[in-house]
Amino acid sequence: MSEMTATAQLVPTLDARLGELLTAARARSRSFAPPFEQLWESLEHIARGGKRVRPRMLIDAYRALGGTDERAAIDAACAVELLHIALVIHDDVIDQDLTRRGELNITGRFATDAMLLGAERDAARAWGEASSILAGDLMLTMAHSILARIDVDDDRRAAMLDAFEDAVYESAAGEHRDVWLSLHLDPAGPDDVLRMAEQKTAAYSFQAPLALAAILAGAGEPIVDELTEIARRIGVIYQLRDDVLGLFGDERRTGKSTLSDLREGKETLLVAYARSSAGWAEVAALFGDEQLDEIGGQRLRRVVEESGALAAVESVIAERCDDVHRLIGDAHIPAALREQLAALTHACGSRDA
Questions:
Q1: Against a cut of 0.70, is the pTM above it?
Q2: Which of 102, 148, 209, 241 could form a disulfide with 58 if both were Cys (CB 3.0 to 4.6 A apart)?
């Protein structure tokens, strides 16, 4: 049986374990006010979706590195999925989004329900955002608790918790920097954007799953270090492609408006390059305009493309994919893991959703 086939067969077990954890938490919530149980129902709904990219990555790496304790791997995979859910929920609050993947998110759902019951719009929005913040906090706490309870020796548990904490710490730093740059008080250059992507996205989406897998499997520190470097670079590729799709992607496939990043004034490598072009001055006032319409969005996208920024970012993605493939080839890791990471790099660089 191939590693990928074996991992695919574990996904139902992963889903069942995740459901078990959340169902138990919802059962506890019944002794509180009804909206708290509704919050857990929303979290269960969110957890049922998604491609399980991070959990699969962790399980694939764990197996390739010789790990055999499936229950421990499943619990670690649940922890990284719950971390992802937590950060996505908080990110929606920061970005003031009401939808996620074409449906109301927690803020949107709770705010809408409150307005239907007669609450004023601003008060309902505050209720929705408070619900989201608390939901994200609950997911973070649950993720940490799961890791802390995995049946491994104390040194390995401490190393896993350190890796998890590092990911959360650095992701928070990256998110904080992202919000600061959106104020446009300190315009970002290309190096600033790349560093922010490494912190905000790579740390929790790629570094944490691979580092946790290696530690849990008992891999030595040199392999953990190699995987950390590879993960950080793959994460930047993922974010650069995400930024391209955020402006030029097919909304039917991405589930995200191609206006949202422009309305937010999100600092990306595309914008960092386009800002130095002569045409940027003509559209600068539109960037970060919360009322930006599709006509304005088309003008901004045209300037970004005509400035050469889109071509430049595509070139950076291609170059970084080549660099990562070289790193993977030189790493002292099993052939199966090398193949998995190469496929992951290609998928991150070429995805369209």
A1: yes
A2: 209
